[in-house]
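Hi everyone,

Forwarding the result from last night's run.
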Amino acid sequence: MMNGLVSNKLKLILAGFIMASVLLLPEIKLSSSFPTIQFIDIILPFVILILFIERKFIEISKFYFIAIAFFFYILFTIFLNNRQESIRDFFELYKLLKWIIVALYFSRIDAVLFSKQYIKPIFLIIVIANMLHYFNIFNFNYIVEHYYAGGVHIKTFGLNSLGQPTYKRMLGLSANPNINSMVFSFFSVLFFPKKNKDWKEILWFIIAVLMLFLCQSRTNLLALAMMFLFTVFYKRSELKYMIRIVFIVVGVYLGSMLIASSSYLNSLFVEKINNHTSIMGRMEVWSHLLEMIKEKPFFGHGPNKDYFYDNNLYSENEYVLQTWRYGFIGLAIFLSLIFTPMISAFKNATKKYSLEIIQLTIFYMINSLTNNPFTDRITVVLFAIMVGIYFNNSNKESSHE
């Protein structure tokens, strides 16, 4: 039980609300001129109040100092590029503040108890919602289309450009197969089998990985493979056990083909990169943004969200986006922010959740090659939750084994 002035039960309930709201509730659109808000934005003042009450118990790590430095650096780029009249740009500062607040809050809860009481129930609800969507049970896709911004993704779900049946990429409540895949990557890491755990626990991992495969994200398939290569090396003292887990994942991948065609995933192995339409489309945008980076290589163009909205552009690469916005100096600060928890985990390998934060960072860094997981409203909060759980004071004396 953690020390503090606020009831641990109350903090756990609020933490459950934060995680469930981000994963299960749709965004709220107030007006066409105002950004959408999440339920977490409504309860954030209560989170801040609890952090203020317990401020004497909070330990500020290097991660938070870098985050604050990044905050003021972004503010600097806004004024440098005369973007101070753009409300949209200032919301990037708010998103970073929300990231810091969520991480701090989850560092003040009983992480082990939260994992036992809340994570599995939330995960089951997400799985059920995804199955209702995937098979369109009770016309569930109408809800996804109209309340979860499913839009064109739902209208073309399971159809090719000619309107003919083809492979399905599970969208879930995130209404995007790549983001949905990242959600299940998060749970795959949390449920990753431990040698001394009951083998019944591996069922949670199997379900999470199966859901990941049904999203058919080629980048996350690659990230999963890289994560396993790292884990096998990192836990080489348990090599036989790790190999068994690898065979289980391969079996789940083959089993996923019984539910749906994996032709989209398999194209990662059988097609040349210049035959991947999605990659070629991304490369055109990256080329355009890289040319603009040359104009302002050090401090970038600022958040400048209007440029992407006005030109209907999607960066689809976190590194290119951060460099375009904040220059190479900003990219360096951003990368130091992301890698700081990972480096800390390497130095404190016996600390609980050290392996998990390393694995999740690998997922995010590889996914960042073709997506924006640190910009998306769902995945950025999930990463903040994991950072908070890792830095959680209650984990100090906990062995990862």
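The chain has a mean pLDDT of 89.

Cheers,
N.
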